[in-house]
Write a structure and sequence with these properties.
With 189 residues, the protein is an alpha/beta fold. It has helices at 2-16, 66-77, 154-183; strands spanning 36-39, 42-47, 78-81, 86-102, 113-128, 134-149.
Length: 189
């Protein structure tokens, strides 16, 4: 009898042991994104973005804030060729916000308040000649958002944010390629 109880307890213990899901740190592989080749001798990146410290702004709470992602993308994916001209890239905004909103479509047993995450990029590209006259310019704006339940695990929250950042950077890359081809077409390859 004692042996049966012991076996049952051991089985219950073994069954109750669930594997813990470990999330690997996200590494953004910029080689998956579109590359842009511009006829310029050099690239100058001006970080004009000033992070606003507020309850909604969560840049200081995440490992990969949008400003670091956009700088990494520019350094890896914007390439120059040629012996003259200068490409000036002004980073005006690269923010991520989390707002608590009312879940208007909530069923009886669903949460009434949810989080809405929003990533916003605003970048200006200027191609200057050797006398600092503007040859071509364009401004690229990209916004993407998603929602989640308010009470989720830190792992789920990190997955949602990283997926949103990746998708936002992909949207931004596509929009940049499109607008640079349109407004700077003579100077791209």
């Amino acid at each position: 009898m004692y042996l049966k109880i012991k076996i049952i307890l051991i089985l219950i213990f073994i069954i109750s042991c669930q594997p813990i899901e470990i999330i690997d740190p996200v590494k953004f592989d910029y080689s998956n994104f579109e590359k842009i080749y511009i006829d310029a001798k050099e690239v100058s990146i001006n970080d004009k973005y000033q992070s606003i410290f507020s309850e909604d702004n969560i840049e200081d709470q995440i490992e990969n804030p949008p400003i670091n992602l956009i700088k990494g993308w520019i350094n890896k994916n914007v390439r120059t060729f040629g012996n003259e001209n200068k490409l000036v890239i002004d980073i005006i905004d690269a923010s991520i916000l989390r707002k608590e909103i009312e879940n208007k479509n909530a069923n009886k047993y669903e949460e009434k308040l949810i989080y809405r995450y929003e990533v916003f990029f605003l970048i200006e590209y200027k191609l200057l000649d050797n006398s600092n006259y503007i040859l071509a310019n364009t401004t690229v704006e990209s916004v993407r958002s998603t929602t989640s339940q308010k009470y989720i695990s830190l792992n789920e929250s990190e997955l949602i944010i990283n997926d949103l950042l990746y998708s936002s950077l992909k949207d931004f890359t596509n929009e940049t390629k499109s607008l640079i081809d349109l407004y700077m077409g003579r100077y791209v390859q």
